[in-house]
Amino acid sequence: MALCFFSRILCFLLHSAPFLSLTVGAVYDHILFPNQTLVIGQTLVSQNHVFEMGFFSPGKSSNRFLGIWYKSTPDVVAWVANRNHPITAHQAASFMISGNRSLVISSAKSIIWSVNSSRTSTNINPVLQLLDSGNLVLVDNMVEEGYLWQSFDYPTDTCLQGMQFTDGADSGVEKYLRSWRNADDPSPGDYILRIENKGLPDLVTLRGTTKRYRLGKWNGLFFGGGPRFPNAMYNVLVVFKQDRMISAKELDDSPAVTRITLDPSGTMTRHTLNAQRHKWNRAFTVPQDTCDEYGICGPNGICKSRTNSPIRCQCFKGFAPKFQSYWDLQDWSGGCTRIKPLNCYGGDGFVKVGGVKYPDMLSFWLNRNMSLSECKAECLKNCSCTAYANPFITNGGSGCLMWFNELIDTKELSAADSKQNIYIRMPVSELDLSTGLEDEKENKRPMKLILISMASGVFISAFINGGILFMARLKRQVKSKNEDLELTVIKMETIVQATNNFSTENMIGVGGFGPVYKGNMPSGEEIAVKRLSRSSHQGLEEFRNEVMVIAKLQHKNLVKLLGCCIEEDERMLIYEYLENKSLDLLVFDDGRKTVLTWPMRYDIIMGIARGLLYLHHDSRLKIIHRDLKTSNILLDRHLTPKISDFGLARIFEEDQALARTKRVIGTFGYMAPEYAIDGKYSVKSDIFGLGVVLLEIISGKKNRGYEDTNHNVNLLGHAWLLWKENKCLELMDGCLRKTFRECEVKRCIQVGLLCVQKYADDRPIMSLVVSMLGSNAAVLPEPKEPGFFIQRSSSPPGSSTSPSFKSENTITITDLEAR
User: Which of 564, 534, 532 lies closest to 547, judged by CA?
Assistant: First the structure.
């Protein structure tokens, strides 16, 4: 093999001049030698004419990129070199091996793109080869094994046969696919396809840090939700090291020509080539259907892709939809909750659910050697264990996998995958059920707390704190509502145990309501406990308001209220615990903000907008939040935003447009002018706060206290002036330069400015805000001057000159309380 290779090189050299100069349109053989130059219009073709390499323009773009494509189907690009560095239409460019053994794309005297060899070469003149596998390799003919550099180490959006996915935990080199931005732009897009090693390997698609799809955990033979292999058309080699999957690749000896792609929408597709027709066919895609969307059925739900019904989600037996009204509208994100609680001490058993893609391993325990019976016994010993299964289907099933807390992203598979069975923990009273699924319209028995009980509990608190007049008002409100609250009462002793007796180590924050503690429930569930401060004058009112308002609201972008505790003089609210705390701790921290790429910030912006749309338009109650700010946006483990703190929220009647108060409470920097000055509030007040939050997320700067040396105005004024000067991208946080999408950033800035316009009537409603944020095609109006457009004095530091508010309103309310 090596002799043949040297003969080809020698033959080529004998018939070639030392410095070749090819005309435009000429085609090289599969080898490029030092001092040869590939220019626009020239290509390198693999030995058997399978692949071709050269400069190309994708789609409708006039920019050029160096890439590799299939010669028989030139529109199918397999690899791009300079995906971050396009060559403009009027720019001449060339590609060559430089003297220091680097690969270089240059224009005039500037270098557009370059890579260095990862290995030392003993040869003065290594050569570049385009192989029939599609691999571009830098070869030292003095070394028979390995390459100095290869394109297979740097995949773009396509995985070819022989190319491997690699988990770089040990080597530091990770190989994964990253989508194009769109069909006209091969620069890195929003989606990544990679190996995830968490307990058991999985192949997952991520958008930023948010999981969108997963193929299924490794079951000993293949990924548990994907196609079986090896088979006649699909042979994959996987390599493990200490139980971690360090690489996976499709072998190039398959009888079919295949490739795997990750498209700009995040869809993973395996294609096969019909060589006679020069046509690619789709052999397998993820997502195949709705059921592949991560967590589509919420906690404790299973997605059934084999049903002909549009209702894809069902609850496991012993569970019922948590929010039946949403479930009926095919919004299953709230998932399912147990009908009857577990009895840890000898009163539980298990229901088998057969043929499933296992739930994601978010909280788990894994033993690779246990039998299934040993696994069951181990699960019964742990009160937090909610399900168990054999992780591996080899040898009839082996090992022990236990899940704790809720079961997320379970999918029904075909009958052929019946070996993947999960056993879900149930109280004994539920074990007479014949199967492991619950119809979504059965057993609707949510735990309820009658408002009279809540009122009497709050009455005790009011009496102790001298709030008898307040209680009378609360009773009238309770009587007028005449409804039940679906809220769980949690015992004081349980909260004390969960928070380690309210230790300072468990305290995670303090607000106007009082301190907030992190807790761990006996079930293993993490909670956040808001404890009413006995010295708080606003806390009791906020407590009542939050119970009355948020207990009726359920949306994935609103913080979830799990229950309350009312004993003696203690008043506490128990929420889901959100790992990443509040948005302000990330977006305003110079050391931490870099983790928030533009796609992540855009997802956060859209999530906040959807949550506010629900409050204003889609919930059973029309809610005005009145204190929307960056610190009241909490983030879960996936950086999903959740609006929190409803202590100041107000319920509006369906046809009510405006209300007024003499007690203006809120946060400076987020209050709308009509609220801060005249005490008037409406949905447009929240929209003003949303606009401020948008501009803060984009800029990484706080509105309150912002100082700009160029415009000498606050953040809102600075953004507006930059917009008028057509320089709005200067507002963007500098750490977003490598990840931002210009059209999205500009659109978000424009929508933010529309939301903070001075006059409430000029601001858009939430349905229009969501539409404008999510649509590239919408033509947006020009924003007018923002509210509180503050022109600061040019006095030197230390002077007593106060800022002047440019506003036609001069009436103020003295009873103004900031939070």
Answer: 564
Cα distance between residue 301 and residue 293, in whole Å? 13
Given a contact cutoff of 8 angstroms between Cβ atoms, the answer to whether 634 and 578 are in contact is yes
User: Domain 1-154 is of which CATH architecture?
Assistant: Orthogonal Prism (2.90)
Phi/psi for 424 (5° steps) reads: -100, 135
Buried b (16+ CB within 10 A) or exposed e, 296-307: bbbbbbbbbbee
Cβ 419 vs Cβ 245: under 8 Å? no
Q: Is residue 204 within 8 Å of 268, Cβ to Cβ?
A: no
The whole-number average pLDDT for the span 252-269 is: 87
| pLDDT value at 16 more than 60 | no
Beta-carbon count within 10 A of 428 CB: 13
Q: Averaged over 394-398, what is the pLDDT?
A: 86
Both tokens assigned to 59: 């789609």
Q: How far apart (Å, rounded) are the C-alpha atoms in residues 519 and 536?
A: 22
CA–CA separation, 321 and 309 (whole Å): 18
Range name among 178-192, 437-451, 570-584, 624-638 with the lowest pLDDT average: 437-451
Which of 632, 781, 789, 772 minimizes the C-alpha distance to 703? 789
CB 585 within 8 A of CB 512: no
CATH class of 584-818: mainly alpha
DSSP-assigned beta bridge partners for residue 166: 175, 247
On whether the CB atoms of residues 753 and 787 are closer than 8 A, the answer is no
Please tell me the distance from the alpha carbon of residue 245 to that of residue 218, in angstroms, as a whole number: 9
232 DSSP assignment: T
Contact between 552 and 478 under an 8 Å Cβ cutoff? The reply is no
Q: Which residue has the tokens 């090189």?
A: 9
Phi-psi region of 90 (alpha: psi -120 to 50; beta: other; left: phi over 0): alpha
Nearest of 579, 595, 586 to residue 363 by alpha carbon: 579
Region for residue 210 given its phi and psi (left: phi exceeds 0; alpha: psi -120 to 50; beta: otherwise): beta
Q: What b-and-e string marks burial along 314-329, b requiring 16 or more CB atoms within 10 Å of the CB?
A: bbbbbbbbbbeebbee
Contact between residue 592 and residue 522 where contact means Cβ atoms under 8 Å apart: no
Question: Per-residue b/e over 28-54, b at no fewer than 16 CB within 10 Å?
Answer: bebbbbeebebbbebbbbbeeebbbbb
Three-class secondary structure of residue 728 per DSSP: helix
Alpha carbon distance 126, 5 (integer Å): 13
- Using CA atoms, how far residue 404 sits from 94, 420, 464, in Å, is 57, 18, 40
Domains 1-154 and 584-818 share a fold: no
**Rounded CA separation 495/498 (Å):** 5
Q: How far is CA 465 from the centre of its chain?
A: 44
- Counted residue by residue, the chain has a size of 819
Which positions are annotated as active-site residues? 627
In degrees, rounded to 5, the angle at the alpha carbon of residue 359 between the alpha carbons of residues 357 and 361 is 125
Could you state, in order of their start, the residue ranges of all structural domains in the chain?
A: 1-154, 163-288, 292-438, 449-576, 584-818
**What's at 729, amino acid-wise?**
L
**Residue among 101, 168, 181, 87 nearest 138 (CA):** 101
User: 449-576 architecture in CATH?
Assistant: 2-Layer Sandwich (3.30)
Helix residue ranges per DSSP H, 370-481: 372-381, 451-464, 468-481
CA distance readout (Å), 653 to 270, 335, 423, 617 = 53, 29, 47, 12
Confidence of residue 659 (pLDDT cuts 50, 70, 90): confident
Radius of gyration of the chain (CA): 31
CB 485 within 8 A of CB 620: no
Per-residue pLDDT at 432: 58
Q: Is 385 helix (H, G, I), strand (E, B) or coil?
A: strand
Q: Is 281 helix (H, G, I), strand (E, B) or coil?
A: strand
User: Out of 93-107, 149-163, 296-310, 443-457, which region has the weakest mean confidence (pLDDT)?
Assistant: 443-457
683 Cβ partners below 8 Å, 6+ apart? 616, 624, 652, 765, 766
The pLDDT value recorded for residue 209 is 86
